[in-house]
Amino acid sequence: MSDATVTGLVLTGGGARAAYQVGVLKAVAQIRRESKAPAQNPFPVITGTSAGAINAAALACRCNDFDAGVRALVEVWENFHAEQVYRADSLGVIRTGARWLTLFSIGWLIARWRRARPKSLLDNSPAANLLRRMVSSERLRQMMHEGHLRAIAVTASSYGSGLHVTFYDALQEIVPWTRSQRIAVRSEIGVPHLMASSAIPFVFPAVALPIEGRTEYFGDGSMRQAAPISPAVHLGATRILIIGAGRMHEPPGARAHSEEYPNLAQIAGHAMSNIFLDALAVDVERLQRINATLKLLPADALARTTLRPIETLVIAPSQRLDDLAAKHLRSLPAPVRAMLRGVGVTGSGEDARGAALASYLLFESPYTRELVALGAADTLARRDEVKDFFGWA
Fold it and tell me: What is the pTM of this model?
């Protein structure tokens, strides 16, 4: 590879599904060691969305020692409990989810005599405490000043203006970009940005962030994210490792189906799949088409365009994470299971309904450990592709 090659890392959203990303990074670190490749951080540009933003920032804070940074992420995700992310006790669930579900049924009556305005299904204040131990804007700036990191970006979606905003930080001057319904804002990345980027709609509360001299409330960056790969390209990446949190392609053959009317949990899970998974597949296909078109251009025509081929490696789960989640529904704390049962998450294993919704909230080690193992296995199965991508002969 050329000395000018800048490798970017794109980590997508998906709540608890982001454990898969950590498994991929664990395997990448192993392949690097086996190849006796240079020990420095292989990703000078790191971008993330939703739970992927949290992984991105935590890794970036430790990118002076890539292996140690990956180990720190593995330690967290393999030993996760829901209480580290949201209030899972009976009182916490009653104050948020139970009140909100009640409003759906008799909210018109309650609102007449009591200003009940729950902000979300769950209270994710414990996540802020976890993030403050893992991430700091001062540490990110230090990594950039020491030359371990060129740029970092996380994305969030404004409920007020409807804009999809990429918050980025870099040492060198990078002109903020503007596209249709998408803008970039230079900012020191901190815990509030990560809380906003990972605020799953309806599930977690919106977060207020300053933007262009005003304050707006933001939610999960996967919402309205038309081009998840774009920030890494704008920040200078010339080849990109993209780690998804859902299957990019379903296997051939008949798909499982149900003739029963879908319950609320199934509809919500379907909607979340649209938010978290579909944009990445579309953007990857778009980038592949651009690369194919650029290969057809003669050298003089290629010299006249600002477009350049972007080498990509996409690693995504080889199994449906909904099915894996279905096996672990009983791992959820009892109050959360009771709340989810109210919207239609029932059963377990092959008899489960609504597992897609639960897969985003299953921050419990039996599930996250399986995802870490799957991410590592999927990556090691493509060891030669990984080595070719990084040039680790």
Answer: 0.89
